[in-house]
Specification:
globular
Length: about 210
């Protein structure tokens, strides 16, 4: 574990000369260890960078504050997104990683900050797996996501994430040029094994294209 570069984080180097990097972003109450196993499953051999959210909500780490359940301050989300984008750039440079091969895997709050970073800094993340995301931020400027790919996995009976928010996020990303794959799971906010397999297959195809 390292506390350098502005975030407490874990770094796992790539294996066997693999040039891909997975940015693993945990959900509310998680930490830098939570998604390392998922990241290594989704992209075998890739380097992993996994930061811990710096915001605490009743002691639970998050990547940005919320005003209430499902209610967000756009200025706060933007500020935290810019902060994380700076960390990603510095981490890629520090660990001598290929900046053109950064994938994000985020769950819930981590998925939301991942989509925010993509909208704020389109050149930073090549592709993203967003697990249980919702729309939390829409920038005023029209960021160009052409050439970017996003896999969204959402729960049909998720008590936290409204269906319309997921669909609005997918539509926003598509409008800005991203290739979006939206998968609906017969479940709630918790992940199910089948979607990790779907995400793994999706990432494998994107890695092969690169």
């Amino acid at each position: 574990m390292s506390s350098s570069l502005g975030f407490v984080h874990r770094y796992r180097p790539a294996l066997g000369g693999v040039s891909d990097t997975i940015l693993a972003l945990h959900g509310t109450g998680g930490n830098e260890d939570d998604l390392i196993g998922v990241a290594q499953t989704v992209a075998p051999g890739a380097a992993v960078i996994s930061p811990r959210g710096k915001v605490l909500e009743a002691g639970a780490p998050r990547f940005f504050h919320r005003l209430a359940e499902g209610v967000f301050d756009p200025a706060e989300v933007r500020s935290r997104g810019e902060e994380l984008a700076k960390f990603i750039r510095e981490a890629v440079s520090h660990y001598l990683l290929d900046p053109s091969r950064v994938f994000a895997v985020g769950y819930s709050n981590g998925a939301n900050i991942a989509s925010t970073v993509m909208l704020l800094d389109p050149g930073l993340i090549h592709a993203a797996v967003l697990l249980r995301p919702m729309l939390v931020f829409e920038p005023d400027d029209r960021s160009d996501l052409s050439g970017k790919s996003v896999f969204i996995s959402a729960g049909r009976v998720d008590p936290i994430v409204p269906t319309e928010s997921v669909e609005k996020l997918a539509g926003l990303l598509e409008e800005r040029g991203a290739e979006v794959t939206l998968k609906w799971q017969l479940g709630g906010h918790n992940l199910v094994p089948s979607e990790i397999k779907e995400a793994t297959d999706w990432v494998a195809l994107r890695r092969a294209r690169r």
